[in-house]
Every structure is written in C-alpha cells, then in structure tokens.
Specification:
globular
C-alpha cells in the first residue's frame, strides 16, 4: 500500500477535524505505480488473489492491445488485468503495464472502485478520444467490455 500519500491525506484530515469533525476519511484503494525497465506498472484496488482471500466472488478479465491506433507514427502495447465481483459486477481492482505512461489510468480505476462502478458502466464510461492519445474505446473500456463478455453480456441497471 502506498503509505506516504495515505499518511498525508490522513494528516490533512486530522488537521481539518482538530476542533470540529467536518470531514471523514474516505478510505484508500492502494493506488500506486512505478517505472521498471522503461515500463510503467500501476495498480489500484485488489488483485485477484487478494479479492478471493477477502471472500469476493472475484474474476479477472485481461486486455492486451495498443494504446492508440496503428496508423499513428508510434504506439505501445498496454496490458491490463481487471478484477471484479461476479455477483455485483463491481470493479474491485486493476493492474496495468505498458511502455506508454498508464499511471493516470490507475487513478481512474481508483475513482471507479471508490464510486462502486460496475464492469457494465466502465465498459461505456466516457473517455477522451483523439488518435493522438487513444482508441475510440479507451483500453479501460475495452478490458471492461472483455469482462462483460466473460459474464455473458450486459446486465440491466436496477
């Protein structure tokens, strides 16, 4: 778990609440990343192993593809494992690796996890599109679409 950022947030909350409780802690998704041999490795939330150990009915979906269209002068592969609960379909975690800088996608996954979004919602969540930056469906959309396919299609909102 990234202890520094969590400690800073907790310290700031303690300062805000020193005389009057005004703001509660919202938890952490243990979002972190690093650069290893020119590869960005980033994650948020639970791994499949941790999710199963926490008694979730967890499953993982995988995506590997370019982060932007092949017709661009350069591109790089992105590999993602998305962890979700099969019963609730809520996103539980994700791990990403690429020569492309994917750390901000871990931040997006952190918000998705915090907000309790499902694989169905992430599959079509609005993401910026421009061939310079992305495919028409962002790689987070695509890994969620792979998860939906694994679960035999979209589930209707309640």
């Amino acid at each position: 778990m990234p202890l520094v950022s969590h400690a800073i947030r907790q310290g700031a909350l303690a300062g805000i609440n020193i005389f009057d409780k005004r703001l509660g802690a919202i938890g952490t998704q243990a979002t972190t990343g690093m650069l290893i041999f020119d590869q960005t490795v980033a994650c948020a939330g639970l791994t499949l192993t941790a999710a199963k150990a926490a008694n979730f009915d967890a499953q993982a979906a995988f995506y590997e593809g370019n982060y932007r269209p092949d017709f661009m002068p350069t591109t790089a592969k992105v590999m993602i494992e998305l962890v979700y609960d099969q019963q609730t379909r809520k996103v539980l975690g994700g791990q990403l690796m690429s020569a492309h800088e994917v750390s901000q996608s871990a931040n997006t996954l952190s918000v998705v996890i915090h907000n309790g979004n499902t694989i169905d919602e992430l599959a079509f969540m609005d993401m910026l599109f421009s061939p310079n930056f992305d495919e028409p469906f962002n790689y987070l959309n695509l890994v969620a679409q792979a998860a939906v396919d694994q679960e035999h299609g979209y589930r209707r909102n309640n």
